[in-house]
Amino acid sequence: MQIQTTGKLLSIVLLVDGVVSLGFGLASWFAPHATLGTIVAIKGAGSDSLIMSALGALSLMYVLLGTICLVSAALPLAYRIRFAVVLALGHLAMELKGLNEFGHDWLIGNPWPDVVIHSVFVIAYLVLAGIAWRGIASTLPYRWRTRMRERLPWFLIRLGIAGKGRDCEAAGGTHDWYNVDGNKSGCYHCVVLKPGQLWERSDA
Ligand SMILES: [Zn+2]
Question: For residue 143, how far is its CA from the centre of ligand 1 (angstroms)?
Fold first, then answer.
């Protein structure tokens, strides 16, 4: 799959997740009995104002979550992938919590649709994030080694840990030039040296 297509699909999943969360948050805020009240037995749950306060906080969290999803759909792909993984973990936690609560007497609605919806989001986020991440990694080979070199102590780098790659272009990616001596260009990520001031162009 093309990386642009994967990125667009990831945005679509984030938008759908955002609209569902935002919609549910607003609906449950204004009509808790018509929404949350069909899932859990609100009446008879002890202090009514306490349970309504707790459910109100839940509604606001859904509004916040939905807004974050909508905003993250417009972020650059590298950030969208990170949000997707975090949201997938969130949906997984919600799903496990839902499964664990099967059989409680206060659970009055059918819990399965909720579990299925969370599973769909977990799978969609993780599959698309995985494909997109591999796509980015293949156009930017050896970048992770550069990042490791920036963090490792010098003696480990001397031993050859996280050394530069052989050739970014041969690996299907692009170089990232810096000024070696005013005339030659070196790549931050691989050992290729080229004549000319290529860093001038890569800064643009
Ligand atoms: Zn390179």
Answer: 9
pLDDT the model gives residue 44: 63
**pLDDT, average across residues 149-172:** 85
Instruction: State the distance from the centre of ligand 1 to the C-alpha of 95, rounded, in angstroms.
Output: 44
- Decide: 28 and 37 in contact? Cβ < 8 Å: no
Q: How far apart are CA 179 and CA 181, in angstroms?
A: 6
Q: Is 59 exposed, middle or buried (0-12, 13-18, 19+ CB in 10 A)?
A: buried
CA of 170 to the centre of ligand 1 (A): 9
Ligand 1 centroid vs 157 CA: distance in angstroms? 18
Per-residue pLDDT tens digits for 142-153: 888 888 888 888
Answer yes or no: is pLDDT of 204 > 50. no
pLDDT in tens, 168-200: 888 778 888 999 999 999 999 999 999 999 988
Highest average pLDDT, of 44-58, 60-74, 139-153, comes from 60-74
> In angstroms, what is the span from residue 180 Cα to ligand 1's centroid?
14
User: Which segments of 14-150 are extended strands (E)?
Assistant: none
How far is Cα 26 from Cα 43, in angstroms, rounded to an integer? Answer: 21
CA angle 167, 173, 179 (to 5 degrees): 60
Q: State the distance from the centre of ligand 1 to the C-alpha of 189, rounded, in angstroms.
A: 5
Ligand 1 centre and the CA of 193: distance in Å? 9
